[in-house]
Fold:
Amino acid sequence: MSPVSIPPPQCLKKRMVVPQRYMFGPGPSNVPPRILEAGANPVIGHMHPETFEIMSQIKSGIQYMFQTQNRTSFAVSGTGHTAMECAIFNTVEPGENVLVGVNGIWGERAADMAQRIGARVETIVAPPGGYLTNAEIEKALSKHRPVLFFLAHGESSTGVLHPLDGIGDLCHKYGCLFLVDCVASIGGAPVYMDQQGIDILYTGSQKVLNAPPGTAPISFSERACQKVFNRRTKPVSFFLDLSWLANYWGCDDKPQRIYHHTGPVTAFYSLRESLAVLADEGLENSWERHQKVAEYFHTGLESLGLKLFVKEKRARLPTVTTIVSPPGYDWKEITSYIMKKHNLEISGGLGPSLGLVLRVGLMGFNSSEANVDMVLEALRDALQHCHRSKV
Amino acid sequence: MSPVSIPPPQCLKKRMVVPQRYMFGPGPSNVPPRILEAGANPVIGHMHPETFEIMSQIKSGIQYMFQTQNRTSFAVSGTGHTAMECAIFNTVEPGENVLVGVNGIWGERAADMAQRIGARVETIVAPPGGYLTNAEIEKALSKHRPVLFFLAHGESSTGVLHPLDGIGDLCHKYGCLFLVDCVASIGGAPVYMDQQGIDILYTGSQKVLNAPPGTAPISFSERACQKVFNRRTKPVSFFLDLSWLANYWGCDDKPQRIYHHTGPVTAFYSLRESLAVLADEGLENSWERHQKVAEYFHTGLESLGLKLFVKEKRARLPTVTTIVSPPGYDWKEITSYIMKKHNLEISGGLGPSLGLVLRVGLMGFNSSEANVDMVLEALRDALQHCHRSKV
Structure:
């Protein structure tokens, strides 16, 4: 054994200190003690019967949260982006047409992902803060004849809650699968996967669910599975191959589960607990609470003289609010001031909304009038103390 | 808002109970309280300065653990399989030749992954429990002229610790990158990434590191980065695109970090802590302890009349021991008996070793003579009480 030439780093000798902070940006949100504690349970095997039981509870919780009876419902071992790639990698083969609705950064990223695996990608773009009409969508479907249409339901970069009704039927009329990103909306605004004809739906653990980032619920309709399981080519990723994942999660007819990957068991614990919290409150109650708190927040913002970025009320995401960046101010100074002075995260824009907005996320147990008051007070304070140029 | 048609599942009403269990299979291993508690710290932002500081400590810890000065050292937000795909997706373009050393399941999976992205894959196969000689490797390199050669250092399916010396030089002689899987070996057996000319090295958090599964340390040499950053095509995965990951982890020259994905911050906390534990003990001490404990274990197994699957002493993995499945017994009955009676996980074979072996992992803080005694006692008991057919 030769001696090591690189010594142990000094920085690991110090104790790690993590601050408590109000997480009122677009995510991750604060994790309540019940969920954090669940994640601190001892590690057992990724193939132990107790783990399979917890995974089965997660499946039921996802079916409830998504309002679906799809048996192919499970959690990807990764973040929202992993689920996004899981959806696209499995449903699309090289050379196939994909249509992407772009109303913010998520559409841009979905288009990039589909291009990387050799799809022919067309986009329809909504103006920032706006959304696509069903007529526009139908026109594009009929023109491009895609196998998959992507849409972000909760566009956290622009604060838009995209209408979903009728789009599933349009997709199916043109023989296309309907893929919806509900990372920022699920649990905070109504989604009915089966009724709305959504074929693939995914979200993340770190928004309304209030679990740490690292797992991503996803569900595939029978129609989607038909396409996936009749592919001519293998999906580019073994790790995200639906046939393996469905087996690991007990969603197929095989008598035995085969070792695929080592599931992040402690992340499963916290995801399970976060789904239990949502089931305890009830979906409708959670939707209603987010809506009420959002309206209370929006009124408060307007009384501070601030403007909402999304004009149309029904298209405002109740979980993440976009505020027109106050004229004359540097948005970075505002978010830094609020972080420093109030120990509270709010954020600037992202992708197409960069420089245009401030974003405030009140998700899951963070969504309360008391927290709204805290954010409004912080904003009032920032507008008073940050530099203002004459405009 | 229409009413929901799928009610909240009853199974989420029960309290989740996770048992304590001796995790002496090939992983995940037990997580000590210090590391579990680190992971229960509050969630902060994936782009907050405190998170960047923790990520920077993780980088230093990985450089130490891997014995490398590579600045492109970081943790993938996923499990070992994710890191494996990260390595292959970034270094290989469609149509390029890849050579895979197969001495167990990991080579088989690496070959599958490379094929999925359109590489031309050749394999050289070692008999189960054996390894490849440098002469065999050179012959294959010279014949196939691959851009990448894959080898598993710690083959957890067969219990082989593959010799590494000299192979890096051979690869470079033929203009090929050397990719090594050290998921099951790192921290438990010597690896010197820079000295041994390894170009890409990755591991998982859930073995010797004793952190929960969900993060995977990886490092790329300058030579590997040269190839990756001069690709003609984009890697198939946005989530695993090295140029994005290197930026998120502060490994590039760009002045600013751009939002890529939401890092699993609590998993970063536990990974950081596990690296601190390793640095506290010191690599050489950890290697020595694993080696001593393994030899003590192997002697004990032989005195029970059991046979080791790997004949050559120096090729035995000190972290995961493969025992020839006791003749006349059903291996499944043995592992089930030990789980039920002793609350202790040991496992059967995997891939090419399925049905041939029992596997016992004593990794990180699980590697102690006291735990060896516990496993030996459980095995002795099982051999006495399980059914034996006349052979």
Chain A has twelve helices and 14 strands. Chain A touches chain B through 100 residues (CB under 8 Å). Chain A has a mean pLDDT of 97.
